[in-house]
Design goal:
The complex is a heterodimer of chains A (about 450) and B (about 425).
Chain A lengths: L1 H16 L13 E4 L2 E3 L5 E2 L2 E6 L2 E7 L10 E4 L4 E4 L1 E6 L38 H6 L3 E6 L11 E5 L5 H4 E11 L19 H34 L16 H10 L5 E7 H13 L4 E8 L4 H7 L3 E3 L18 H7 L4 E3 L10 H9 L5 H6 L3 H6 L17 E4 L10 E6 L2 E2 L5 H9 L3
Parallel strand pairs in A: 1-6, 2-7, 8-9, 11-12, 12-13, 13-14, 14-15
Antiparallel strand pairs in A: 1-4, 2-3, 4-5, 7-16, 9-10, 10-11, 16-17, 17-18
Chain B lengths: L1 H23 L7 E10 L5 E10 L2 E6 L9 E4 L4 E4 L1 E6 L29 H8 L2 E6 L7 E4 L1 E4 L17 E5 L2 H8 L8 H30 L12 H10 L4 E6 L2 H14 L3 E6 L7 H6 L3 E4 L17 H7 L4 E3 L10 H10 L5 H6 L3 H7 L16 E5 L8 E7 L2 E5 L15
Parallel strand pairs in B: 1-4, 1-5, 6-7, 10-11, 11-12, 12-13, 13-14
Antiparallel strand pairs in B: 1-2, 2-3, 5-15, 7-9, 8-10, 15-16, 16-17
Helix pairs in contact in B: 4-5
Classes of the chains: A alpha/beta (about 450), B alpha/beta (about 425).
Chain lengths: ~450, ~425
């Protein structure tokens, strides 16, 4: 009874900041992509495939001639091409930065405090960023937008689609997850003069514990209040009906509640085995639901990682190995995890270079990751990890029509993306960069 | 001021000593190797299917389909794998132990990068594992005129002097644009603008001209038999700049914007030196015909952009658009990370602009070698060149190419099939 009233209160608060996914339904006319090699991701490869995009969704797909093409459909011949679901980046800073070195164009993180769960990247998300067209021209259609990682709790992630009439339309899930960073980079120990709490990992952990305890305490206050309020309302005597004074709202603590209740995942970032285990203990202490992030230098505990039975956002696999590690220690991490049955997803951890996401997956296959797993790790796996698999991540009937047409293997650097459909709409293959190219090459 | 000058002198004199040792310590290769059954990507004369390369004493001695080697040669059966020249990184700051910028004065041509060269830096090994065999280690871009580069071969595990590229020409680093103006402007010093940058550059070059005049006046007096003539004081800074004016140093200029590329060429003409290459050169595509006409190379990124204002007009088609106008283009790393996968970076030019595979490979081999001035020694699989070769698992110009074996001067420095670090010449702790 008491807990459910807390939950009610919280759902109300959550409702304020979570807008349920609404997909753009701007597609005017059905489109039939006909003739190419279709990588469904969920059910294999279809040679000479056909895919029907209608009302922003995938209406049908299959082998040529087995699929009825609607009479009013625009038929696009994609013979010789490969087509596949839009790619998903599991961590980016898209929309939070324009020019890295120009402070005025950056809204990446608040570093005035380490505990900032009430920062919502959707409040800064710049839908008109020049980086977004550049990115989607390479077939990336969806991404997690995360704040920078200099705080232990820098704020909450959004899940975006890389096209839409406005930011509102592009933000498919406004608060989808919350990073908890425990890599050591969050210590405030830049210099002896500037040091402040927390300047050690002990400090980071203690501060995090206190924050979650405070949030539990806060929830308790609200629960007590709700209980008293209900009791008062149930009173027959008018003078006993006076409701109690509500506790003061605290946005910071409020923001932690959905995570304490396991309603959304924490993205738990650690690099080395010791930090990983500290971070996992912390998450367990508060029953947090979590996915792991990075773990680039945790090769010695991969069986432990597998036993956690949680997905891992892996990489960037270009992270330098430690001096004592072999050159391919990080390159081979996706293969090592996949071999142990861990569900992995790749992320760019970048803004300007999100477009290179598929090459990371390709490169990982050169170090033992099976090709199908590599493709899944930038499509279906992230869709599942982020709770979007009913709409994204594979070419299946009923899913959002995010489809990429390319002249070859999606994971190869040589492959040129020819067409991108987002929610069934064909995206113009232009960006600030193509305009400069055309201007100076006389096209 | 005097103390710092003395420190510079001490550092410099040490560098002369080590350079002398380096010359003596060049190792003699005793190898005789036949690599057979490879797809040989020569760079200069096409691709040889089922080809062989015979290496003797560290040099490529024969290349082709029918190569005979004495029975004494070690045979490496490539099993149909691709063989390319070793990758050359024409812009690197690895192995300098963070001593990349002597950012205490905007003009520091007397800095010698060899004096900071940290031959034990694992970044050399990781680059090697990505197929890099030669790198140009440059001074940073904090200074309008930075220091003198060192050219290394990635023979990780050997001693310092054995890793120097013997006989490589000297290069000097210049820098324009945002970096110097930010470094000095933020301290309230000259330069804080692009006008300031170029004024500092011209002023230093004028001083060098005067220094040269003083010396030639003195030399003339001595020649005439004037026994009372007193020699001008030696100034290491101006001596280095005089060598720029004499054309003894290859001038490597960090430069992004199109207008600055042209200004740098003009200043070079004003003072009578040639620019060897522009580094980064992200707006080269805007003035490519001009760069081609001056025979200036570029060492650029494949697709890196937006990291600062002067990289805002960067486009991934820069390399190919510039190449099509006749510019000699290299793809370089400028990063520990990219140095490990320059093959992929080069392969992006196939996608962005339609470079042929040969052209793409040339951007990380022969063209990069030209920028460093060692194209007569490395950068292609030709008879007489150093046997710096990479045998690849997977196709090198793709997402899937990974070096299987890396040869430098005919010796194997990295073998992927070996356990541990994969280096036959190196054991941790030695």
């Amino acid at each position: 009874m008491k807990m459910s009233s807390v939950n009610n209160r919280c759902s109300f608060l959550v409702g304020l900041i979570l807008i349920l996914p609404v997909f753009a339904a701007g597609q005017q006319k059905p489109v039939a992509l006909r003739g190419g090699k279709l990588l469904t991701v969920s059910h294999g490869v279809i040679e000479h495939g056909v895919l029907i995009l209608q009302d922003g969704k995938i209406a049908a797909l299959g082998v040529e001639n087995s699929v009825k093409i609607p009479k009013d459909a625009r038929i696009v011949d994609v013979s010789g091409m490969t087509f596949y679901p839009g790619l998903i980046d599991s961590e980016s800073n898209l929309g939070l930065t324009e020019i890295q070195a120009e402070g005025s164009t950056n809204d990446l993180i608040e570093t005035s405090d380490e505990i900032m769960p009430h920062m919502h990247v959707y409040d800064a998300f710049h839908a008109e960023s020049e980086l977004i067209p550049v990115t989607r021209l390479n077939g990336i259609t969806n991404a997690i937008v995360a704040p920078d990682s200099k705080d232990t709790l820098p704020g909450q992630d959004s899940f975006i689609q890389l096209a839409g009439k406005s930011g509102e339309e592009m933000l498919l899930v406004r608060d989808i997850a919350m990073p908890l960073n425990f890599t050591g980079d969050q210590r405030r120990n830049e210099s002896w003069e500037k040091r402040k709490f927390p300047e050690t990992r002990m400090g980071m952990a203690a501060q995090l514990r206190q924050a979650f305890l405070d949030a539990q305490d806060y929830a308790q206050h609200w629960a007590d209040y709700e209980k008293k309020k209900n009791e008062a309302a149930g009173k027959t005597d008018e003078k006993d009906k006076k409701p109690p004074t509500p506790p003061k709202r605290d946005l910071k603590l409020e923001a932690l509640l959905p995570y304490l209740e396991g309603k959304r995942p924490i993205v738990l970032a650690a690099e080395e085995a010791n930090d990983l285990q500290t971070a996992v203990s912390l998450a367990r202490e508060f029953n947090l639901k979590f996915v792991l992030n990075h773990i680039s230098h945790s090769q010695s505990v991969l069986d432990y990682v597998a036993a956690l039975k949680v997905p891992v956002i892996v990489g960037p696999i270009y992270e330098d190995p430690k001096p004592f590690e072999r050159y391919d220690a990080v390159y081979s991490l996706p293969a090592q995890l996949s071999k142990r049955g861990v569900k992995i997803a790749f992320a760019s951890f970048d803004a300007h270079n999100v477009r290179n996401l598929p090459y990371q997956a390709g490169f990982a296959t050169a170090f033992g990751l099976p090709y199908d797993e590599a493709l899944k790790a930038i499509t279906l796996n992230p869709a599942e990890i982020w709770g979007m698999a009913d709409k994204l991540g594979s070419l299946d009937v009923g899913k959002t029509a995010n489809v990429v047409v390319a002249n070859g293997d999606p994971l190869d650097v040589r492959t040129d993306v020819k067409k991108v459909f987002i929610a069934g709409e064909e995206i113009p293959m232009t960006s600030r960069q193509t305009r400069l190219r055309d201007q100076y090459s006389g096209q | 001021m005097r103390r710092s000058l003395r420190r510079v002198l001490i550092v410099l004199s040490l560098s002369f000593v080590t350079a002398a040792i380096a010359q003596q310590a060049v190792p003699v290769a005793h190898n005789e190797v036949l690599i057979k059954n490879a797809v040989v990507m020569t760079v200069t004369h096409g691709v040889i299917q089922n080809g062989s390369v015979y290496i003797k004493d560290g040099k490529i001695t024969a290349v082709g389909r029918d190569v005979t080697a004495p029975g004494s040669a070690t045979v490496v059966d490539a099993g149909g794998k691709y063989l390319t020249p070793g990758i050359i990184d024409s812009h690197s700051h690895i192995a300098l132990d963070d001593d990349v910028n002597e950012a205490t004065s905007p003009v520091t041509p007397q800095m010698m990068m060899i004096d900071a060269f940290d031959y034990q830096d694992k970044a050399i090994y990781r680059g090697l594992a990505g197929g890099v065999t030669t790198s140009l280690l440059l001074h940073g871009s904090a200074n309008v005129i930075g220091g003198q580069a060192v050219v290394i071969k990635h023979k990780y595990g050997l001693n310092r002097d054995a890793m120097l590229f013997p006989g490589a020409p000297r290069s000097i680093k210049f820098a324009s644009g945002e970096n110097p103006k930010r470094v000095y402007g933020s301290q309230g010093q000259l330069p804080s603008t692009r006008m300031g940058n170029f004024a500092v550059q011209r002023e230093a070059l004028v001083q060098a001209q005067e220094y040269m005049r003083e010396w030639s006046d003195y030399d003339a007096k001595v020649k005439k038999g004037d026994k009372d003539a007193s020699a001008p004081k030696r100034d290491l800074k101006l001596e280095a700049l005089a060598d720029v004016l004499r054309g003894k140093l290859l001038v490597q200029i960090h430069c992004y914007r199109a207008d600055e590329l042209l200004t740098e060429i003009a200043i070079g003409k004003e003072f009578g030196y040639k620019v060897r290459a522009f580094h980064h050169a992200l707006e080269a595509y805007k003035v490519a015909d001009r760069l081609a006409a001056e025979n200036v190379g570029i060492a650029t990124f494949s697709d890196w952009w937006g990291f600062k204002q002067e990289a805002w007009d960067a486009i991934p088609w820069n390399a190919v658009l510039s190449m099509r106008k006749g510019v000699r283009v290299a793809i370089k790393s400028d990063s520990e990370d990219f140095a490990r996968r320059l093959n992929q970076e080069a392969a992006k030019t196939i996608r962005y602009g339609g470079a042929t595979d040969d052209e793409a490979l040339k951007m990380i081999t022969l063209n990069a070698a030209w920028i460093i001035g060692v194209d007569d020694r490395v950068g292609s699989i030709d008879v007489g060149k150093d046997a710096d070769l990479v045998l690849w698992d997977g196709y090198p110009l793709s997402s899937y190419g990974v070096p299987n074996k890396v040869f430098i001067d005919g010796d194997i420095y990295l073998d992927r099939s070996l356990p541990g670090f994969g280096m036959p010449h190196y054991r941790e702790g030695e």
